[in-house]
Give the backbone structure.
Amino acid sequence: HYDFWQGAKWSWDADNNVFWTWDTPFNIHRKFKRVVRPEGLGGIFVWSLGQDSHKWKRMKKIDKKVKRWLV
């Protein structure tokens, strides 16, 4: 599922009683634009790289945004 207003994808596994959320590269871009820069945050963190795609789409987006942010 996708929650546009909260900016996250999510899934509920009722069998195991587990709720998952994750960001897409678009959501990472949006969070930099709407949160990181306007709030003057001094950094970001990544919870789990092991959950990224096999092409590292999320980490590549974060790397790109951080490099632009530092300039």
Notes: The helical segments are 25-36, 57-70. The two ends are 35 Å apart (CA to CA).
